[in-house]
# Entry
Amino acid sequence: MKVWPGNPYPLGATWDGSGVNFALFSENATGVELCLFDRPNQGRETTQVRMTEQTAQVWHVYLPEARPGQFYGYRVHGPYNPAEGHRFNPAKLLLDPYAKSIAGSIKWSDALFGYTIGHPDGDLSKDERDSADGIPKCVVVDPAFSWGQDAPPRTPWHQTLIYEMHVRGFTARHSKVPKELRGTYAALTHPAIIDYLRSLGITAVEMMPIHQFVADKFLVDRGLTNYWGYNSIGFFAPESSYASPGTLGQQLAEFKTMVKTLHREGIEVIVDVVYNHTGEGNHLGPTLCFRGIDNAAYYRLVADDRRYYMDYTGCGNTLNMTHPRTLQLIMDSLRYWVLEMHVDGFRFDLASTLARELHSVDRLGAFFDIIHQDPVLSQVKLIAEPWDLGEGGYQVGNFPVLWAEWNAEYRDTIRRFWKGDDGSLGGLAFRLTGSSDLYDRGGRRPYASINFVTAHDGFTLADLVRHNDKHNAANGEDNRDGHNGNLSWNCGVEGPTDNPEILALRKRQQRNFLATLILSQGVPMLLAGDEIGRTQRGNNNAYCQDNEISWIDWKLDPQRRDLLEFTRLLMRLFHQHPVLRRRKFFQGRTIRGSEVKDLAWFRPDGKEMSDEDWNNPSVHCLGLRLAGDAIEDTDARGNRIVDDTLLILLNAHYEPLSFVLPAHRRKVRWEVVFDTRDQKPTRRRRLIRGGQPYELEARSLVLLRLPQHDIRENGDNEFHLRAAGFEFVEDSLKTDSVVTSRPNSSGLLSLRNRL
# Structure
């Protein structure tokens, strides 16, 4: 085989049309061997090429006879001295950190560990067995793909509606998708799936990890797997198990086809990325890639005992973001997924870890500085999971401009309110209006808040209203894993029941949560399957359940279909009403001559909330009016945006309440858009005069609107409204019953000051 010196850049295996350049960074290695294989399951390399060229700590070689489809790996020489942070062991075949495709999966055995399992010296010992038989192989790829006219949808943040999904679980049980495609990237391009996503009204799918990941040995030994995928080993390679059959890098084309198809339908692709740790675990973990290439460079080690790893993630190790080559790895990976794979954004798992310069979290760390000045990455959607498990790791509200955050405060507050907890009203006001207490600084806007009630981690929506306690026995950890504080409520009975009253309440609570989510300012994120009542049977940590516990059941009974139709109604309202998608925080005052304040809060007697009301922990009901003629936004051509005025009534009390509808002037007529007491959205168009009471069901939410044409007097009379199909539910309004607003009552700004 011909061997040429090659080049140190780009890193990885690069096909240039004539041959393949291989480049591998290792600062502390003393030698590197490139190993070539004919098959991905081959136990010993066919050819071994010694890499003698080293430039700027990058080992490189060029093989003019190599072609796409070539399987390869590395063996790296150097000191084996764990106490000094070095774990080189050339007996262990290693994956390329820059591999664009990885074929096969790990076959667990003791040979995959750099030390001898069971040795009295533990990881200080050295295992000389060859690991090649159990290691998947990297694949040289041809990146060519016909993107055609593909273009990113570039949906503005304030118009974004996110749908969190698992690639396999979403289609694994879908009867209309061919069996051989279920659970793959290709399945997401099937017409039945595309039609469903379009009908739902989402604008972006947020895919749980699709980087090549490791199924942990302790899970495989139990007959389980790492279903969620938060255990990356290849930051450039799409997870091969989500692709249709093929070992020569076909998953790249399949992933790209999926992105291209979703883009054609106006749907963005956001990928969940795990750059905080790798699948190699702690000092007792296997040697698969980074540990054997340069352990001291890639991982954060304990300063006074470099045998051990700093663990801010709870997964055994933490990538060393203070090393320039590790930082380069992550930035190169991000750019690759945008430029080559055309994804539209990223959700960063345990993002606080990436901001740790030394020990503490630095919100203006090097990672953020680099992204902000990057002409590619600064233009895509960036979402932080703003916490990790280290000291000071909870950083909700502290990420810089350009970043949105999973808002855990939103999740917890909304759960507390609908659960009926006392003292949740003040927090609820902030969460409904974009969490200005967290994000109204540093140039950030309401869409910095990614609002969610449920996510992959925790109960599904159906389980949130069925269970007080987790039921994780299937995970094999004696129910010790998963969160204990779920802020859930089973509505009176734990788990399944035939009690019709409890079943009705559970359905209403699901509608309450969904409606609150969509009607709140910020970016809504819906967990896939919540719209059809998906259950995990009370498992709130189904990370290892690649089975029907996690997969979506598409056989819908009438009740689940009703929930789906209600969700679709909510999505349509989100897109129809810009007053629900404000780009600026509320001011709590009249805006540019609007008839009423942009935001007003009401109590059940129709009067505006007072300080005493906000401070009363036993208050569980309030109304929120969003003025459609007081939006401070303009459209793309600078025209003022005007919308209907909306009134949201929320009653988390265990008894019904009579709520007097506000009336800032005579002849105000509120149209009932929906009431969560109704299992199906009613087609009857109901009008209720301002000043009249509306009977709120216990634990229910009602949306009413004051049509734009009726915001000001315009000569419309009752005859015309009746002719349009409206029914006057309340028809006995007297002039003296009109409720006027108190000029000095409390708005959101005064609430912020008090909190």
